[in-house]
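Exam revision sheet. Question 4 asks you to relate a sequence to its structure. Input first:
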Amino acid sequence: MSILHKLPFEWLVGLRYTRAGKGSDNSGFISFISLISVAGIALGVAALIIVLSVMNGFQKQVTDRMLSVLAHIEVFDARGDMPQWRDAAKEALRNPAVLGAAPFVQSEALLQQQGGAMRPAVIRGILPEAERDVSDVAGTMRQGRLDSLTPGSFNIVLGYALAGALNLQVGDKVTMLLAQAQATPAGLLPRMRTFTVSGVFEAGHAEFDAGMAFISLEDAQKMERLAAPAGLRLRIRDMHQAPQIAQELKKSMSGDLVMRDWSQLNAVWFGAVQTEKKMMFIILTLIVTVAAFNLVSTLVMTVTDKQADIAILRTLGASPRSIMKIFIVQGAVAGLLGTALGVGGGVLVALNIDVIVPFIEQLLGVQFLSKDIYQFTAVPSDLRWPDVARIGVVAVILAFAATLYPSWSASRVKPAEALRYE
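Answer key, structure tokens:
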């Protein structure tokens, strides 16, 4: 005996109704509408998976480029600079999640080409040998070397776009003007110092390439008149755990410390991305909802078409509850089939978008992403299984909800009235 014969009769009748029947002239049309409903759910689910995967890919690309310059966690002493930074670094490295620690000084200044253009920039003083433990700046160098930032050399490494805006090359001179004023016989004047361009980096993130520069830690302390580094920059194993690790370090490290993780440093950008993802999820879920409404119309038409069958089942002893189950099974099967097809198609496209998009670009003779704007030309995709699971669950719930009213309507059919004109 097959497995189907072991199922309750409600399941057997419900599964039978999902296929094209020959009971009336409307059966073929109803089956077509049912197929459209399944296809609508599948397309909605697939579109939701693909769009969220691409958005996750863009976020990952931008985040990785940001973290090539930014540290995962920054540690400051609430009292000012951090003269005992070596001890603090040792304490931080005792946490197994921390991979590296490096001191830094950071300030804002104006950079001016000798007698020419002027641009604002964030100036970060670093120890090149320690910086490799917390960022990938050394690997983004286009010209020169990060090791050129030796104490007392007053060398400077500029972002690629910043160097271009100032029309500077390696070996050129640039003047740094700090906001802090100093008293002179001519009055209060901004403090300034001439630096030599010893390198150019390209992180691939417009904000940093156009507005960041690196100098020696000791030179930065002299410019800022600090006796010690301003704080520590840390890199951890899993950047997504940065908020939790920061709280652990605050409890385990001595002193009155202030912790900032990378998501706080870019709170506006990450907040905007999360809001955009939520809104996109809601908008695309409406596609699935529309398909669910199509499922309602399909079931309503099926109930109308099968009233004689319902009446016969009722006279044979089927309860209203059993009749309701029949049409719930029919709608649920359509919803599950559409969701399964959508999940399968969406995952397949999301995992192969690096092949599909270039094929479409070549076929249409277009380029979706300009390197001048996005710093990369391939459409990124980052498929996350929790997103897939959430989308699948939402689609199944919507499909199930769509079956309730038509099923309840079927259970209210009165056998005598349904058979009156048969």
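Marking note for examiners. The chain has a mean pLDDT of 82.
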